[in-house]
Amino acid sequence: MTYTSFLVSEFLLIWRRKQDVINVLLFFIIAVTLFPIGVSSSPEFLASAAGGIIWCAAVLAILMAVEGMFKEDFRDGSLEQWVVSGLSLPALILLKVVAQWLAFLLPLLGIMPLLSEMLFLPESSFWVLIMTFLLGTPSLFLIGVIGAALTVSLRQGAMLVMLLILPFYLPVIIFSTLAIQAAEANLPYSGQLALLSAMSLLSLVISPFMTAIAIKASAS
Amino acid sequence: MQSSVSLTISGLWIERGERDLCKDFSFSAQSGEVVRILGENGAGKSSLLKVIVGVISPLEGKIVYSGEDVTLDRNPLQQDAIYIGHSVGVKNLLTVAENIRCYCPDVSPETLDTVLKQLDLLDHIDALVRTLSAGQLRRVALARLWLTEKTLWLLDEPFASLDVGAIALLEERIQLHVSSGGLVVLTTHQDLRSLSCRDVALLS
Amino acid sequence: MNWTWFHKLGSPKWFFHRSKAWALPLFAVGCVGLIVGLIWGLVFAPADYQQGNSFRIIYMHVPVAMLAQSCYFALGVAGFVFLVWRMKIAPIFIKAMAPIGAVMALIALVSGAIWGKPTWGTWWVWDARLTSVLVLFFLYMGIIVLQKALDDQVLANKAVAVISVVGLINLPIIKYSVVLLETLHQGPTFTLTKKPEMPSEMWLPLLVCAICMYFLMAGLVLWRMQSEILKREYRSSWVREEVMKRGL
Predict the structure, then answer these.
(1) Where is the chain membrane-spanning (chain A) (predicted)?
(2) Rounded Cα distance, A85 and B168, in Å
């Protein structure tokens, strides 16, 4: 196995399992539509809450996507093969996360114009929303895989991952919604974006190693 | 392929869950040998292979590969080893060729065709592994033995779910490998027909 | 420097015998001290000129809230110790400590709510410190649930250590991020560098309560650890001897 061949087969697998991406996307859209129906559909409320609504729905959708990431690999023995491949396990994990991130984020960004229109998000803050997604979601994926790796040996791990990981997502949601709110109020928002990037970089440093420990413990 | 390799294990103590699988277990082997680990069900044969290749950490003991102490960092051994466990690491949603290319990316199409023909998989080369039988799935995993140049083979029940023809083929391949300087450690419950091996008993 | 004590700490047997004599005295000192501190605070300390007698819940609230945070810090450190040195005692410590921390966080939340009603006129506000204690409670629950869900001891040990370390790294970030939300809460009562703003008749009993709370908890944790050690090491001969000699 080499890093390239690993990445190629990961992309092939994502392509064969594209239904998963579509499911997560649908879940995301449905979760967003709950808010106008359940809370208030007045444009004033939605415009001010749009950033928060989209982010909350996205966090749940991403956790859904990440939660089962290693299940299949655990079942068919691939995890063992990663461990013994002689390649660096954190690097393999990072490659897999990058592949998954691209696979889920691009469609997510693709429907963002539609959703922001539906929620009356002011046009000026649309690009800030996109920026927060680009800078913030790597951290969500990287933290999420730690939970996925810890619970990989459990048959029903989804709920546990939610419990375990959602508290860690709080800062990302806070920084993102603050950035969007700042943009709406015509205030500078670069500070919040910098914080988001810092979160992602920190997760990038820690998560592959922590996930590798969890994967190794689960594979044995 | 390296000219000569050796594997020495001393004072190995493996614990799984609440049980001690083996305590103070030692053996050594070198190039040209087929070592068969014997033991009852649950004696820890699979765990022993996993410890050697570095999936599990032993409580105590020392593992030396070709003169290098790999107890703490199994990487030098892993670089030179193929491990095929109970779950073989073959992806259901990839085709036979894609699966093999994941593990052996540099293999040429001609070689791949020849080996797959031997293994009776050529007709299924572009079929998703999901559609194959258990025996065919194992053969996809075993194709690695023909296509990669690694010295140390650690095979956990390699003959499981194979038919007579495939067993003979695999034994032949193992024979060829050890005669050209390879080292094979395997566990099996089947009697080996043509293959001569050294037995190491794992007593609990 | 001699490091043998540090490595010995990894042996549950050594720890068990060493800590055996400590649990009860720590617990007793903590209990007595806490009762003294509470009576002092509740009866003898002067009433607050703004909040009247309702402020007296501080003698419960602050020690508990301090503990809830220090417990998590200790968990993170133990997790780190386990991942680096594979010290067997660390996951036992985490398992013993996590429920105590969760209860502390819960008491802090409830006592805070009770205090909030007369002072702020509401049981709950989405204030920075309240939210961070709530998150802390969730983090504790995560550890406990994960520990319970994983049957395999080796995996469970690793898993709780990983999540504790990740939690320790993230906790300051979470706390900082919620500070960006508005804050209603008064500043911390004790800091290391400044004298408290309260009169000493008020903060002295609080200090006694806080310190004794730590003792109480240390005793509790030791007890829980000892019973966990007995449970995990039941196969070994020294546990059998121990049980035969002294009974359960």
Answers:
(1) 21-39, 45-70, 82-106, 126-152, 159-181, 193-215
(2) 28
Interface of C with B in 132-161 (CB under 8 A): 152-154
DSSP B152: E
Q: Is residue C72 assigned to a domain?
A: yes
A83 touches chain B (CB under 8 A): yes
A72 min Cα distance to partner chain B (Å): 8
Which residues from B are below 8 Å from A84, CB to CB? 53-55, 74, 78, 81, 83
> For chain A, how many structural domains are there in total?
1
| C120 falls within a domain | yes
Would you identify the CATH topology of the domain B1-80+151-204?
Rossmann fold (3.40.50)
DSSP state of B128: B
**By the CB < 8 Å criterion, does C235 face chain B?**
yes
Residue A26: its pLDDT value, please?
A: 95
Q: SS3 for A87-133, per residue?
A: CCHHHHHHHHHHHHHHHHHHHHHHCHHHHHHHCCCCHHHHHHHHHHH
Residue C6 belongs to a domain: no
Instruction: Give the C-alpha distances (Å, rounded to integers) separating C180 from A56, C65, C175, C190.
Output: 18, 21, 9, 22
What is the SS3 string spanning A21-86? HHHHHHHHHHHHHHHHHHCCCCHHHHHHHHHHHHHHHHHHHHHHHHHCCCHHHHHCCHHHHHHHCC
Highest-scoring range by mean pLDDT, A196-200, C85-89, C238-242: A196-200
Mapped onto helix, strand or coil, the DSSP state of residue A6 is: helix
For chain B, which residues make up each domain, given as ranges?
1-80+151-204, 92-149
The pLDDT tens digits of the residues spanning B77-123 come to 999 999 998 888 899 999 999 999 999 888 889 999 999 998 888 88
Determine the pLDDT at residue C183: 52
- ipTM field: 0.90
Output the furthest CA–CA distance in chain A (Å, rounded): 58
pLDDT grade, residue B21 (50/70/90)? Answer: confident
- In a mutagenesis test of the A interface, which of B75, B86, B87 is the best target, namely the one with the most A β-carbons within 10 Å? B87
Cα–Cα distance for residue pair C145/C73, rounded to 1 Å: 19
Q: Report chain A residues whose CB lies below 8 A from the CB of C90.
A: none
Q: Which span out of A85-89, B39-43, C231-235 was modeled with the highest average pLDDT? A: A85-89
**pLDDT per residue over C173-223, tens digit each?**
888 887 776 555 566 666 656 666 677 777 888 888 899 999 999 999 999
Distances (CA, A) of C110 to A42, B134, C117: 36, 58, 11
Q: In total, how many domains does chain C have?
A: 1
pLDDT in tens, A64-106: 999 989 999 999 999 999 999 989 999 999 999 999 999 999 9
Return d(Cα C222, Cα C77) in angstroms, integer: 17
B91 to A75: CB separation less than 8 angstroms, yes or no: no
- CB-based contacts of B93, cutoff 8 Å, min separation 6: A13, A16, A17, B128, B129, B130
What is the per-residue burial (b if ≥16 Cβ within 10 Å, else e) of A112-130? beebbebbbbeeebbebbe
Q: Which residues of B132-168 are buried (b: 16+ CB within 10 A; e: fewer)?
A: beeebbbbbbbbbbbbeebbbbbbbbbbeebeeebbe
Judge whether residue B2 has pLDDT over 60.
Answer: no
Domain of A141, in residue numbers: 3-219
CB-based contact A75 B87, cutoff 8 Å: yes
Phi/psi of residue B160, nearest 5 degrees: -60, 140
Host domain of residue C235: 22-186+198-246
**Which residue carries 């969890």 as its tokens?**
A214
**Which chain C residues are Cβ-neighbours of A178 within 8 angstroms?**
180
